[in-house]
Amino acid sequence: MLNHQSPFHQSPEEIAVAPLNPLIATRQQEVIQLLKQVIEPKLKNDIVSLGMVRNLRIVDDYIYLRLYIGSHQHHLQAEIQSILSPLSWCKKSYIQLCTIPNVKTTLAVSSGKGGVGKSTTAVNLAVALQLAGLKVGLLDADVYGPNIPQMLGLGQTDVQVIDTPNGQRFLPLEAFGIKVMSVGLLAERDRPLAWRGPVLHKIITQFIHEVEWGELDYLLIDLPPGTGDAQITIVQESPVCGAIVVTTPQQIAISDVRRSIHMFCQVGVPVLGIIENMSYLIGTHGESIPIFGSGGGQQLAAELNTPLLGQIPLDPDVCTGSDTGKPIATAISNSPVNQVFLQIAGAIAKTFQ
Ligand SMILES: Nc1ncnc2c1ncn2[C@@H]1O[C@H](COP(=O)(O)OP(=O)(O)OP(=O)(O)O)[C@@H](O)[C@H]1O
To answer: Taking the model in full, what pTM does it have?
Structure first.
């Protein structure tokens, strides 16, 4: 099982702005305490700690909140209405549902630092989940380096737009049984995406809500590296129910990961665990050679009380797989790299199914 007991339990300030009025502050506390009694049955944790409740506001005798859930968790809305109903002062509670239609579990794959293998990890993890019989989508939201289509052999394919009863939607591409959408498919090949501020915000929001995914068990979102505007927008706009943070073992990468984890804490998204990539090279006699030092992922996991989900070796076949559009996990082999991806996919499936 992954970590859903985030070390960063949400404080009231993180799900709601602290009000100045003492009466409203008391009411807000009362509402948070009640919401904490609503338990997500599979994850066995309360909806506040899981980061599902955001933007809680009390205005006079009314409660407003946003509920970020998967398509299979709609029952939580009725449970919230019912748990809040005994509040004598509350005339009505308004719950805005924030889901991606037909998508059950949305996970973010993130890194504090660029080039640590975040996209490679996202792609191979998607493949490993698909091989486990799950319906998987991969959203490449790395606005600074969207190379997932290339890693899946999709090149610069045109994206189709279709009419649906809910308006126009982007149709995802498909590779190795995975539905794929990427911000890179909107850009000209080898030209940087020079989106900033409001344009960036709009494009990202469109990508999250205007893709016709169909039924998905998992949507993995490959975030841009770092902790800037783009990352925060994506995490705040989507029902991400957990983040997986990718790092390499060296100390310099670790301090960036700390920053990344604190960003998730601030927006109230639990960190499910850490994946250490390029952990070691396997020598000709089967020995592990720690090229980039060792122990970073373990140290971080212990410090932040979050599991180390796996340590992926440095392997030239990983690189070749990405470059040729055939991710290593698609080769049915028992290689150490593939074993780690299958192990992580297994832990995810066990937690959310
Ligand atoms: N375990 C590994 N063994 C060998 N090569 C790897 C491994 N992981 C990643 N790579 C290679 O490292 C390079 C960077 O990987 P990738 O693009 O996934 O990183 P990233 O963190 O997503 O980068 P960015 O910051 O640009 O988003 C790629 O060439 C990839 O093939």
So the answer is: 0.90
